Amino acid sequence: MMPFHRVAAIVLRQIYLIRGSPVRVLPIFAWVAIDIVLWGFITRYLNTIASPGFDFVPMLLGAILLWDFFTRVMYGVTIAFLEDVWSHNFLNLFASPLSIREYVGGLVLTSIATSALGLLTMVVLATTVFGLSFFVYGLMLVPFLLVLFLFGIALGIFASALVLRFGPACEWIVWPLHAFLSPFVESVYPVCTRPRWKQQEPHLVPH
Question: I want to staple 89 with a disulfide (CB 3.0 to 4.6 A). Which of 75, 84, 172, 178 is the partner?
């Protein structure tokens, strides 16, 4: 069984980093808020030119919210990992009895905390400002969030592995990694809009 106090130590390090530099709190809320506001007003505009009775808010704004949640989960892992890369802290970590599994467990817990805060920010903005109600998704929202969370964690670990394998210069691949996937997962448009010969690709990637 994994010793929880070692996993908690990794999380505590992230808390100390945020406490020592409050600027680190801003990205947790700022980017998701900007996305929700931007796409919220786009959906309002589309509703003014769409057929009566058709609402873009749950379709388009809801899709952006879920995709941003996936992105926050991935960044929750990779940014916590990159903090140790930037500070050259790996020697200190692995000179201790800490194992790889415990270290990754700490990164995952950090990602849960940061992505939950980001999701809460998005839900509050989307609900209060643009009237997005999650009741329209029903119970299907639970597996949607679970799949996106697990895929975000997996992609974050994969991105961290790229940096470990190819060096810090690979960081420039990490930041847009989720964007590379976006044309293949149909986060904001249905699969049927793609050419028929391209409609099988999205089934290979969680979306």
Answer: 84
Query: What DSSP line would sit under 9-49, residue for residue?
Result: HHHHHHHHHHHH-GGGGHHHHHHHHHHHHHHHHHHHHHHHH
Domain regions of the chain by residue span? 4-176
Inter-residue contact 35 to 68 (CB < 8 Å): yes
Question: Half-sphere exposure of residue 97, counting CA atoms within 13 Å on the CB side?
Answer: 5
| Cα–chain center distance at 188 | 16
Number of Cβ within 10 Å of residue 182's Cβ equals 15
φ, ψ at 155 (rounded to 5°)? -70, -35
DSSP3 helix / strand / coil % (the chain, rounded to 5): 80, 0, 20
159-187 per-position pLDDT tens digit: 999 998 888 888 888 888 888 877 777 66
Residues 98 and 37: their CA atoms lie apart, in Å, by: 42
